[in-house]
Write a structure and sequence with these properties.
mainly alpha; two-stranded antiparallel ribbon; 463 residues; 75% helix; Amino acid/polyamine transporter I
Length: 463
């Protein structure tokens, strides 16, 4: 007889299988076509307007710079999924899963762009004079469906309690394994760091993540690049392994059990979506606070977020794991999450293991900081500014409880709770998709924005 928790586990496993993958994939595809393949048509322009403009003064008004909004959003997405999630996808879906991770990332760009455009379009100022926005605001103001906004905000606020616990536990167990420090001590230290940063609001979070995120991503990706240059001859084999198994079943070898192609696609899509959070409605909460002169300009930063998170960081992990051969070892399936550490240790010795541990600690710590901010914004939307400060205290306590492994039972509800956030957000984005299209057309045809940025305005006047 299945227990209640077994049933919950089975329901969420089914839900995060074909049903949600089809919903997210189809939504991303629909928005890609609706927006005339925006992520593929303007790659150079997108790069110039985002990463290429970090030293220029941002246009328009907002609470934080566009870069700070992006690094805040990336703090939430670059996390354990990039380090331990990728080898899990490879072990359960084969190397071909990496190809499907890229596919969902490219399709997901249109979805994340749309969410962020809507977040800026319907944002407002709170009582502290800061810009706030996100799904709960575009559901209320754009659709006139406050009940849907309340559903989203309440579900996200509650979902983040087990989420913070899981992250707290990930840091504590990693530190305990490597440095033999008691979990409770780690939990208290992490909680104190989070309090110092989060109670300073989005401005302080932006200032911290602006330094933190590029630094931690550079160390991790930089180390993977060193491995790449040490193994240039492994690059063709890496791509051949991924592409050849993206469309045909992978047979058993070493510790790898072999999989059907449907599993390959499922694991690639699931890991990709879990990693870049397209459709979850979380990143738009950070993007809503950015200084910008048009919602579409900030939407371009959301596209770059997926490039960094999935195309760069996840691919770096995949290269190190696949090129090292650790995934073919006899006992590889026993603990897929340890494969990244093993792969780096293969190349750099003991230093490699410490490097992965430190990266994981930084990645998870930055994730906690930003998701606590997201949760506070939901409380603010529902009950006002004071409630937002109260929920921050709840999350801080949850970090400490999670670090000692408390309430593992409620972690079972994590995937189910994520679905409760994702579904209302997808409904809202689809219902407001015509507004995203209107704003996109306005941006790319108006003389104030794209035409002016690219010098096409002069050409237009001359002709």
């Amino acid at each position: 007889m299945d227990t209640f928790f077994d049933i919950i586990g089975k329901v969420s496993a089914w839900l995060w299988g074909p049903p949600l993958i089809i919903v997210l994939g189809a939504t991303g595809l629909y928005l890609t076509v609706l927006l005339k393949f925006i992520q593929f048509r303007y790659p150079l322009y997108i790069f110039k307007q985002t990463v290429g403009s970090v030293f220029k003064k941002p246009k328009g008004e907002g609470t934080v710079t566009p870069l700070q909004a992006l690094t805040s959003a990336l703090s939430s997405t670059i996390g354990a999924a990039n380090i331990v999630g990728v080898p899990a996808a490879i072990m359960f879906g084969g190397p071909g899963a990496v190809f499907w991770m890229w596919v969902i990332a490219l399709i997901g760009m249109a979805l994340k762009f749309s969410e962020s455009v809507l977040a800026v379009r319907y944002r407002e100022k709170n009582e502290k004079g800061e810009f706030v926005g996100g799904p709960m605001y575009y559901m209320t103001k754009g659709l006139n469906m406050r009940w849907l906004g309340v559903w989203f905000a309440f579900a996200l606020m509650i979902e983040l309690i087990p989420s913070v616990m899981v992250q707290g536990n990930a840091v504590a167990s990693t530190v305990e394994e490597t440095f033999n420090v008691d979990g409770l001590i780690t939990g208290i230290i992490v909680a104190l760091i989070v309090v110092l940063i989060v109670f300073g609001g989005i401005k302080r979070i932006g200032k911290v993540t602006e330094i933190f995120v590029p630094f931690m991503a550079l160390i991790y990706v930089g180390s993977a690049l060193v491995i790449l240059f040490m193994n240039m001859d492994a690059v063709p084999e890496f791509f051949s392994l991924i592409l050849s198994h993206a469309f045909q079943p992978m047979s058993a070898m070493g510790g790898f059990a072999g999989v059907a192609i449907a599993e390959t696609i499922r694991w690639g899509f699931a890991r990709g979506l879990y990693s870049n959070e397209a459709g979850l409605g979380t990143a738009p909460i950070a993007h809503a606070a950015a200084q910008t002169d048009h919602p579409v300009r900030q939407g371009l930063w959301a596209i770059v977020g997926i490039v960094i998170d999935t195309i760069i960081v996840c691919t770096a992990t995949a290269f190190v794991v696949l090129s090292s051969g650790v995934w073919t070892a006899e006992n590889a399936l026993d603990d897929p999450s340890a494969l990244t550490t093993e792969a780096f240790t293969n190349y750099f010795g003991e230093f490699g293991g410490i490097l992965v541990t430190i990266s994981l600690i930084f990645f998870v710590l930055s994730t906690i900081i930003v998701i606590v901010f997201y949760g506070a914004k939901q409380a603010e939307f529902l009950f006002g500014w004071k409630a937002a400060q109260g929920i921050k205290v709840v999350y801080t306590v949850a970090i400490v409880l999670g670090s000692i492994g408390a309430a593992k039972v409620i972690w079972q509800f994590l995937d189910l709770a994520l679905a409760a956030i994702l579904i209302p957000n997808i409904i809202a984005v689809l219902l407001l998709s015509k507004e995203v299209k209107r704003l996109t057309n306005e941006f790319f045809t108006s003389e104030e924005y794209y035409l002016k940025d690219t010098g096409k305005l002069k050409e237009k006047k001359i002709s």
